[in-house]
Each structure stands twice: as C-alpha cells, then as structure tokens.
Amino acid sequence: MAPASLLPQTYPETQFEKASSLAAPMNRLLDRVASDGDWLTKVLEGSAASDPDFTGRLLSLHNKIRKKTGPQSSKARLGVIRSDYMLSNSVIKQIELNTIASSFGGLSTRISKMHAYLIRRFDLDFEGRRQPENDKLIDSLAESLFVAHEDYLSKNGIESAVIIFVVQEGESNTSDQNILEAALYSNHGVRVERRTLQQIFSEAKTDDYSKILTLNGEDVSVCYFRSGYAPKDYEVETDKAWKAREIMEESRSVMCPTLGYQLAGTKKVQQELERDGGVERFCEDEEEIRRIREVFAGLWALGEGMTKEDKKAAAEAMVSPEKFVMKPQREGGGYNFYGQQIKEKMEEAGGAENLDEFILMERLEPPKQDATLLRGGRVEGRGPSISELGIFACIYVSEDGEEMVNDYSGYLLRTKFDGVDEGGVASGFATLSSIVL
User: Is residue 331 flagged as an active site residue?
Assistant: First the structure.
C-alpha cells in the first residue's frame, strides 16, 4: 500500500480554485521560457559551471540539440506538469514547478476514491465540506499523451506507434505508472513500452534521414520521462544514458518533457522569474502577470551576480537560518538544506557568493491539522501535520505552434508530520492524501 493519510485534509476553497485556475497560465509561461534558449543559457550558466556533471550537461546537450534541430518552438513538445503550493497566512505560495517525472497522478485518483468511500461508509461528518472532483485526473494525463501520439502519427504519415515510458533501473514507483499505462490502452488502445535510458541506448535506432525513432523495429511517438531528473539516472560506466537522451531529443518523437521544459523547471529559473521583469519578459497580459506574481514566495540568488537584496537575504540566513530553505537544481526530494544546515553550507563554501548551484527561498509555515498517517499498510503515527498541494496540468504544443492541450487535470495532496523538513512521498518523507473544501 502506498503511504497515505487515513482521512482527507481540509483546504480553503478559494485557494484551491486559485491554484487550479493558474494551471494554464503557468503552463504557458513555462513554454515561453523553455522556448527562449538564449535566456535559459544566460540564467543557468552559473549553476552549470558549479554543477558541471548534471545541470551543466543538461544545458550543454540542450544547446547542442538547438544547433542541430532548431529552437524548441519549432518542435512539438508535451508537458505533464505539477505546480506545488503551500498555504502561508491563508494564501497559497508556489513551492516549485515540476516539469519532469511529475508523479502520483494515478495514485492520487485512487486515494481520493478511498477517502470518498470511507466518508460514506462510516458516515463521517465534515461539516458540509465537499471533496473536489479528482476522478478524471488519470484520464486527463492519458488524454494528453494520446493527443501528442495522434498528432505525431498524422504529421509523419504513420499508422501505428508505441509510447516509451523512460523509467529508472529498479523502478520503485511502478504502481503509479501502471495506472497511467492501463488508461492509455483501455481509453485509447495505445501500447506502452517501458525502458531505462541504458536499454534505449542499446535498443532504439534513429533513421538518419527521417529522424524517426524506432524501438525494436516499432515507431516511437512519445518519450515520456519518469527518470532522467537526477544524476543517479546517468551514473553508468559509460555515457550510454546521456547518449540515449541525445538520440531521443534529436528524433522526431515528442519529448515529455523536452530538455527545454526540464531546464525551465529548475529552481534557478524559478528564482529569476521572481525578479522584477522576469515574468514580464514572457507575458504581456497584466492581469495574468499579477495572478502569477501573487503566488510567488520570496526567492533570492546565491553565487556570482548577487544583488543587494540577495546579499541581504544571505546575511539574514546566516543569523536566522530557520527562516529560509536552501535549494539546489535537483528534483525528487531529499536535497534541500534547512536551519543550521544552511549556515554550515555557506561557511563550508566560503560564503554565499560561492554557491551558484543554489537559491534561497523563504520558509513557509502552513497551518497544522491533526492526521493519522499510514505507511506499509500500518499506522505510522498520529499528530499535527502539514500539507502541500500539487496541481496537475498538461500542455501540448504542435510543431506548427498550435496549443492543442493546456488545462487543469487534477490535484495531489501530500501530508507529512509537522517538523519533517522534506516533502517527497517516494523518498519516504510524506504521504498521499486528498482534500475537502
């Protein structure tokens, strides 16, 4: 059994609706950022230099592909995106934008159904509160993959193809992925092949002329990444995993996500968008800009090029580190620095100006609710808990530039005991939950 809360958590309806309504604008902002390769390179060059084996290689490969195949805006691209929020003083603030391997869409649907059953079965009184609909989440994710699949077949004059799920060696989250795989086949008749990056290197081929990607002789329409977001996914004796990523990115297959989308979801980009003029570079609608900026938390740069405000925040973090979180360019949970760890990291580096691969973020203090949390099918404990809301949204833009998909898909709630710093479910810190409004 997946880690879960026994019962749903209450959540303010206005803030849930605000987060849901921001799905399409956030997606559109992401697409425009990812399509501006020169801006991405400028923003990430410091982080790339400080983290050459991962962020550096991602950025280098992105620019190599741009030179070979043209800008991202000339290629089809698909995103299964999850924007994470925490409540602070009764309003939502964005924690991060997950652009690669955004997980638990399948299990979130099941948890919502489990909680709905328990409420009915035991006639639980939630004082007239209602559960927001989440049954269509997995169907929405499958639909976005299908739209990209069908568009690929149409554009390339191909009758059939498979979708590759790019997974980790010894994948531990197969149950969530299998729900999506089953929805693709039962709803749309599309078959999935699961492969690691190393297996793709050995089995996949690209036609030199057409750039059609095939796997054991079958055409590949979409490469959906549930790996490739952490250095460990590329840790092999040779560069086979990196070469596999290059083979896929150069092909005509639709990437979910592209390298551009992955880089646009880094913490450094999030921090740069928060600066004056950041969002405005990519968005002209003043109301949309206001709505996006309204949910930004305090974010500050570290490393070379720190502004006066950045240096002030870094100095405060040395005195009151409990007010901040230090984040690297990593996904998957377990990489952040909290409290005294921040001060120690800065001292170890010889100062904040030597930490280009990190950013500072204000530490949010969400409201606490009592919860009973389950792990391994057993009660892990009971006590005060805090929650983080994830809003799923899909975007598909064709090679013609047509925005064929861009909408809210559903939600995820992760709940953990108060006092636990990290928030990943797969990494063992949080549990899956649902909400009543």
Answer: yes
Q: In what order do the strands lie in the sheet with 358-362?
A: 299-301, 358-362, 324-328, 337-338
pLDDT at 72: 83
Q: Please state, in angstroms and rounded to a whole number, the distance separating the CA atoms of residues 437 and 430.
A: 21
For this structure, is 32 an active site residue?
no
Residue that the structure tokens 């861009």 belong to? 406
- Structure tokens given for 74: 């000339």
Peptide bond into 8 cis (omega under 30): no
| Residue 335: predicted pLDDT | 86
Q: Is residue 323 annotated as a catalytic residue, yes or no?
A: no
416 labeled part of a ligand binding site? yes
Nearest C-alpha neighbor of 195 from the set 167, 220, 172, 175: 167
Amino acid at 359: I
Strand partners, 358: 328
350 is an annotated ligand-binding site residue = no
**What span, in angstroms and rounded, lies between the C-alpha atoms of 96 and 93?**
9
Decide if 327 is catalytic. Answer: yes
Q: Is 35 annotated as a binding residue?
A: no
* Bridge partners, residue 337, by sequence: 326
pLDDT of residue 427: 59
Please check if 68 is assigned to a binding site: no
Q: What is the pLDDT of residue 161?
A: 98
| Model confidence pTM above 0.70 | yes
Contacts 24+ apart (CB under 8 A), 306-315: 306/352, 306/353, 310/352, 310/360, 311/352, 313/360, 314/346, 314/352, 314/360
Contact (CB, 8 A) for 281 and 275: no
267 belongs to the catalytic site: yes
All domains in the chain, ordered by first residue: 4-288+370-436 (3.40.50.1760), 298-363 (3.30.1490.50)
Low-confidence ranges of the chain (pLDDT < 50): none
Which among 327, 343, 345, 363 is annotated as catalytic? 327
DSSP codes joined into one string, 413-436: EEEEETT-----TTTTS-EEE-EE
What residue type is assigned to position 208 of the chain?
A: D
> What are the residues facing 323 on neighbouring strands?
none
Residue written as token pair 């603030």:
93
The answer to whether the beta carbons of residues 76 and 148 sit under 8 Å apart is yes
Q: Of residues 37, 398, 414, 434, which has the active-site annotation?
A: 414
